[in-house]
Amino acid sequence: xxxxxxxxxxxxxxxxxxxxxxxxxxxxxxxxxxxxxxxxxxxxxxxxxxxxxxxxxxxxxxxxxxxxxxxxxxxxxxxxxxxxxxxxxxxxxxxxxxxxxxxxxxxxxxxxxxxxxxxxxxxxxxxxxxxxxxxxxxxxxxxxxxxxxxxxxxxxxxxxxxxxxxxxxxxxxxxxxxxxxxxxxxxxxxxxxxxxxxxxxxxxxxxxxxxxxxxxxxxxxxxxxxxxxxxxxxxxxxxxxxxxxxxxxxxxxxxxxxxxxxxxxxxxxxxxxxxxxxxxxxxxxxxxxxxxxxxxxxxxxxxxxxxxxxxxxxxxxxxxxxxxxxxxxxxxxxxxxxxxxxxxxxxxxxxxxxxxxxxxxxxxxxxxxxxxxxxxxxxxxxxxxxxxxxxxxxxxxxxxxxxxxxxxxxxxxxxxxxxxxxxxxxxxxxxxxxxxxxxxxxxxxxxxxxxxxxxxxxxxxxxxxxxxxxxxxxxxxxxxxxxxxxxxxxxxxxxxxxxxxxxxxxxxxxxxxxxxxxxxxxxxxxxxxxxxxxxxxxxxxxxxxxxxxxxxxxxxxxxxxxxxxxxxxxxxxxxxxxxxxxxxxxxxxxxxxxxxxxxxxxxxxxxxxxxxxxxxxxxxxxxxxxxxxxxxxxxx
Length: 636
Prior knowledge:
Layout: E1 2-4, E2 7-8, E3 11-14, H1 24-32, E4 43-46, H2 83-96, H3 114-126, H4 133-138, H5 142-148, E5 164-166, H6 170-178, E6 187-194, H7 200-213, E7 219-224, E8 227-232, E9 241-245, H8 251-265, E10 277-283, E11 291-297, H9 303-321, H10 335-345, H11 349-352, H12 355-363, E12 385-390, H13 393-401, H14 403-407, H15 411-427, E13 431-438, E14 459-466, H16 473-485, H17 492-500, H18 504-511, E15 518-525, E16 536-538, E17 557-564, E18 567-574, H19 581-603, H20 622-635
Parallel strand pairs: 3-4, 9-10, 13-15, 15-17
Antiparallel strand pairs: 1-2, 5-8, 6-11, 6-16, 7-8, 10-11, 12-18, 13-14, 17-18
């Protein structure tokens, strides 16, 4: 069924012939004996009788939609008891798309991930429940979080306009290190279809409030003597909103014109004088809905920031439309303060303590990735092609709701296990060096809150993923999970030491770690993002290139994934100068098949287990822990 664009799933309708009727668990277990996991319905609806048409065939349109009920979990459902618990339950239900959650339900077993947890923290703060990312991962149930939440904010963020110089962050150092040929054209952008035309004067006013509220949108960059510096500019009377009238064109001509103008507008950002933000409305008259292009230089935005920016744009515009004063949620820690704290932290003993983790990466035995064609240089961005593969809605729901509880995993554990298995088959090497991208908002400091801060926080760090060759999905999933858990603070320390540390020898050592030839980035779930609203929907036209095509590719393969409209989509970007399309298609399909193997394994009866990182104080390796768990199971 497709009841909404964000909810696509396989549904079973049952008319019981026995009393009592079979439970959902009994039905699932019965079907599991004859069907593969991805064919087992995601929802079961019990009816007194099937709705029929006059010809006695089932009237499919009359079948009722299943509700968004809580999935079956090991934890017994207990409803919220306190006001704090109810506030958190309301937020979880909104973010996860569920009708009810219990206070002992685990957020990640319900399908949550670290990116969605940031949204929960931000919304909780707005309700006066102040939480940190660390608290979220230490206790990921409503009961635990309600007990940990405080009424007073843990940080005091500057609520005014932040101006003045600030250090470059690690990811910004990385950007300028690449020496891209057209640095002003390296953006993130979105093109929307509008449910209703926007009033130009209200849009300009709303955008001016965004620029005032989110300081990173006012960043400026100068190169002095070969050294890049940045500062927060003050407010400007110039609002970067442009209107293009296409109302005299037919639909096909409008489509061409939108793509043409969008491509041009993406090249108009200026690192030195600004703006770093460009907003363009396309007036399509009565032919079709108007279009809205938002382009922001990547130096000022990342994936998490988009959720904040779009939400605030819609909030500000709606308030102005209703003749209300614009009131956005309180600001969290400024990008300026974050950059300054990172620079100070880089010289601390805590930062240096992580060095040994990264030194191990240099010792890994890494084979170059196979190539179909040999060239002496990396191809340009202009040659980039992509192949997209997907799980269906039922498989995606199983990935989010069934898999995490089996071995207490997060989605990155599962996706990277599938990637490691795929690449092992291709390279015949047990170890794969990957550059991992993360959202970079891990809590290093107790007095910092980044849940509503716009900026480029992304972390990029190398990790060597090694498989033992067992060819067992469960065993390999546990191996990769443990290797990821050994990376402190989700890898943020690598960039800090690599670019901000005071010791030149350390910087040189980290710079000499072998360059990964493949990158991986999980972008999160987008069905609950503000873009998936009644106001803004993704437009079908091309928005032009986000980056200059004159630049050089950084990796042979870029693998990224996200969940859109209830399905996991994995994009493989490559250059035909290096690989034939058939090669990448085969890799992409092998990845999806490896993912299905893991899902099926985790859905098998009696499949469960723990890994050493689940019990850090016990100091057990996997073998000893497995023996202990087996012994405890026998006693039961």
